[in-house]
Amino acid sequence: MCKIMILITVTLSLLALPAIAEDHPKAEIFGGYQYLRLDPISTNGWNAAVTGNFNRWLGVTGDFSGIYKSGASLHTYMIGPQFSARTEHFTPFAHALFGGATVEGATAFSLALGGGLDVNAGKHLAIRLVQADWLYFRSGSEAAGKNARVSAGLVLRF
After folding, report:
1. Maximum alpha-carbon separation in the chain
2. Residue 80 belongs to a domain with what CATH number?
3. Taking the CB of the first residue and of the last residue of the chain, which one, N or C, has fewer CB atoms within 10 A?
4. What are 52-65's pLDDT values in tens digits?
């Protein structure tokens, strides 16, 4: 009788695995507005990200952004882990992103540490209420670490 109970438990557990795996989106695409404070300059632009989720709480995010002011531009392209705490109504997250930045043809190392809060608006849609990041840039011996980025927009989930 004990062997039968173990067999039934194992079988039901294996059958439940697909249902457990479906409790998170496999991919998310974010697009929205960003406000960037590059000490001492403040400017506006866009922010986009693609996240592939391994499970309910861990994913990898590719983040891209652009800002424009007085004929100059700054573009960032970073990748890194994202940790999420998914609930029925909200998805708070934190990430550490590493990559590069391009300012008028010159490149630099870039780092973004931060997180945000998505408000679930359905199975395939969320509103990114806020994403806040500390940004660090380094090119040769020049470094800039007094930078902050705040973004908001829509998240499509697949």
Report:
1. 78
2. 2.40.160.20
3. N
4. 999 999 999 999 99
